[in-house]
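User:
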Amino acid sequence: MTPEQQLQQAILNCYNNNMKYLKMYHKDIYNNIQALNEAIDSGFYETKYELELKENSYFDIFDKVNNNFIYNTNSIEFSQKLLNNFKFDESGLNTIHNLFFDNLNLRGAKKHFSLSDYLISPVLNQYSKILKPKKKKDIKFKRINKMIFNGTLLGIHLPIFHKKLKSSVYFIVENNLEIFRLSLFTTDYASISSESTLLFSVMDEDFIFQRKVKDFATLQLGLNYNIKYLNISKQYDTKLQTIVDIIYQNSSLNFHYKLQLRNLRQAAVNLNNKFNFLHPRKDINNKNNPFTQYPVLILGPGPSLSKNIEWIKKNKNNFIIISLGGALKKLVSNGIRPDIITTADGEHTFFEQFNIEDKSIFNDIILFASLYSPKNIMKLFKPDNSFFFENINILPKNDFSIDCLTIGEASYALALILNSKNIYMLGLDLAIDNDTGNTHDTSYKSSSIDLNNFDKDFYKKNNSVKPNNLILKKGNFRDEILTTRHFYSSLYFYKANSKEYQNSDQTVFNLSDGLFIDNTVPAHIKDIKTTETINKDKIYPDLIKYLKENSFSSLSNDEKKYFITLLNKLNLCDSFLSNLKNKEIHSFKELIEIKNNILSFFVKELSNYKFAYLPFFNFEGIIGNYLNFFYFQKNIELNKEEVQSLYNRMIRDLHSILHKITISSELISKKKPDLKTRLS
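Assistant: Predicted structure:
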């Protein structure tokens, strides 16, 4: 066999091995490659790229349309240079997500990662006292555990990087299916997969791409302390920004386990009181549904609220008005009484949103509240007028749970679920006001950005991937608008809820001068024509009647048994953890292995109870990340006493989480809680 024949056989073998691997583990990509092959073979599709051997030593991609080579240099040398120029330290270069904390940075955690409060900082401080963090500039890692290759070309750089990194997880992104197909001849993905987990996104639709980024972000969550990326060329910048957005919105710090436990406790309390639980039936006769008969106006506390308050006053009787809690004070001060108020935050301080002088107004307002809403808010409303919705998957009977980041997306989803035909949204800006720099209506929150200090041209040239950055995105009325990564994260949930709940006969109009929201129609208020005046006194009992018909108000015996079974599972977890309580630990490595075993056992036992395993999953996302951040650093040495102290701290924290989940579950099941702490 000639050298040319040997080479041809080698690349064909590489392709066939990759196709076998894709067929087994990534069927969607395999099917797309097969479809492309069939289109090429049948003459239906003419290839735009060809694989070409150059100088009998390396491959390049020939672009037939533009008549040029994409590498236009030695692709092996090009790939080696990528590795040589790559930054492997803790610095921000090539770093997409970094959960770095030290004694000086803990107080800044809220600013940088949108913590809703500082509950988690004292916990991290306890670990920090033992671990004694280095200065950021002195941190070097033994290995990079999660790596993103944004763009493959021929993929020649992947095995070169893998030989150096030996990462646990790789996320491989390619925009062009034809180019990825060529890489199957030159890169042995199958061999790399024998040592690492590979996730792929190849020419996916946006929604699928976002889901795959989320899969990457949540896979081996405790290794997110330092995610590195390689952007193969400028044309992949948009993908990179989307990756940052999705990873940020899935950060464990956005909604940490202390908050999850607090919310679970409040949900348990609410389920022990008189309640109505929304459970809309799809077969209900829409002739009896007021939400299908009248337009719905959802009002939020964005900057657009004040700018259009006169229009709202003029048209307040032309819509069923759903107000987010944050917009209430502005509306009431302008003589506007919403028909429905929505709230989804479990924080007691959010009571301030409802702190108006005449609280008798709540007697004639319907409340849509998340199951974990605090009692100081619930007490303001009549029980018969209050309806819970779920967004934490506690009750097995409930077949819908709203996926949301904020009450804005929840309110939007509820309007869709209740089958409103024409929905109008105002004050859900999700953006920085172009004139004032305000993030919200001043009646809700005094927060603004100094627009004079924002250099748009500099931003575009130096677009950072830090999670707390201001970003430019498509506006509802403008080509682009300034927003925050936290605001922008909400778009994923709007889109997800549209996909889940929006019917073809439902239209949503976005009246805000803010972010463009998929599946909505941008509309200026001057173009909105309303004619029919709603008799609010007459419609109020109709709304209550319809909502009651689509609610339940008690737990069934099967549901109570569901929680009894959970308690048995929690007892197993407690026994497992108790057996490890007094264990003598000899090394940091042993501590990490035991932590992984504990969390794997918990997640396996509690797999049918998402609300019960999520706090442990989140513990791994925060404490696990923090421990791994130190474990994988070079020149970190802990003596036996320090390792033991760290281990004891971890076991106490895990026992505390387990205890709180158990107490809440006992309360829901109406079993008398055992209030003796399991920490003794």
